[in-house]
């Protein structure tokens, strides 16, 4: 069986995902066969594997760092929040149902066989498994039947690195308080702490590091600098939702829906030198963009009502009437139609009038579409561009007019185009650089500007470069020798 190391954090957002990503790349560089693992992930950013199964996006990036194709065993349980107290439960890449929080917590221990089967299968194929926790192990109200932090560490006998986020302040209290709240047997698993996202002169920290080691009884394994590596974020609370350079000639407004999903679709267009991307949360922020994007969402009907209540729906419609293009992806495409029907109560039940930008309607159903596919874009403005993407949605959309957005490799048509309103189900639409460049050329042309000579790097190549940068920063900061020695002590 593989050796293993687990990264836990003092809180959500402490940098666990990025540290696991870095460790996967470092260990791969050191000649090891390594795979990531996270027993339970809660995120709206998901991905469809080559065999049509669904997993969390963070483990997809970690798989890339390890030089592997994404495998649903790396994330056997995915929770996709559909409300403040309920989520869609996905086990082994397949939808298991919808559960409120209380019901899920009562039954989650029953998922341990699924978790162990996935873990043991991976461990039989690799030298090392780098495991990511979730939230904090000091959430003592959740300690009973834990399956993702110390409970999982016990199940697989893993040593633990504890990570704190100095950028949020109070990092010494974070780390000491977390260790203090652990049971003695849990503390014995912690091989060291890491201070993450540090800006400044590390020598200033030295006195505090010595005191922290004395208080916790474990070494500080490193102080990791605030990384400038541009790695896909796991959730919509991340810093990516800040705007790009406002001085770029084309202004792209992405509507920041309350339940936005797969917002990493737009990371590639943020990198084009002509495209300035803003994430709009309220009417006053919309202004006069050159393109409006309605992104994916876990709750299309609820987010459409939010658009309506905030006044953004009417504003987007008026912009489109004036000739401003509007692009909807997945849930954004669904809400651009004339009507949404939910006879089985998949979302909120009943019917809802759509935005009326496209001559189509959507009927939700219990069956979830999950598939990876290549396609050729048919929309006149982008005609002939080849893309690879994935579908992940509930329900089907039928259109009664307009033209199709794309022709899929299996012969099906996707999406709908009516003048400057465009809708598609294809996530990952911009991952291949040619599509980004074609979009930029079209939008620049609408403004009477010449296309640039820029050629956008394919997203996977770009991510590989950024992962290497991250790994270099982390390797320089961490005591990797101590980590490898600790892994050896825990080896079975």
Unreliable spans are: none
Going by CATH, what is the homologous superfamily of the largest domain? P-loop containing nucleotide triphosphate hydrolases
Mean pLDDT: 94
> Which class of the largest domain in CATH terms?
Alpha Beta
Strand order of the largest sheet: 2-9-1-10-11-12
Alpha plus pi helix count: 16
CATH topology call of the largest domain = Rossmann fold
Summary keywords:
16 helices, alpha/beta, 492 residues, 6-stranded mixed sheet, 31% helix, Rossmann fold
Can you describe what's shown?
The chain is an alpha/beta fold and 492 residues long. It folds into two domains: 3-231 and 464-490, P-loop containing nucleotide triphosphate hydrolases (Rossmann fold, 3-Layer(aba) Sandwich); 250-448, Rossmann fold (3-Layer(aba) Sandwich). The chain contains 16 helices and 26 strands. A six-stranded parallel sheet has the order 2-9-1-10-11-12, sandwiched between helices. A six-stranded mixed sheet has the order 15-13-16-18-26-25. Strands 19, 20, 21, 22, 23 and 24 form a six-stranded mixed sheet that branches. A hairpin with a 4-residue loop joins β6 (77-81) and β7 (86-91). The longest helix is centred in the C-terminal third of the chain and has 19 residues, at 459-477. The protein is globular.
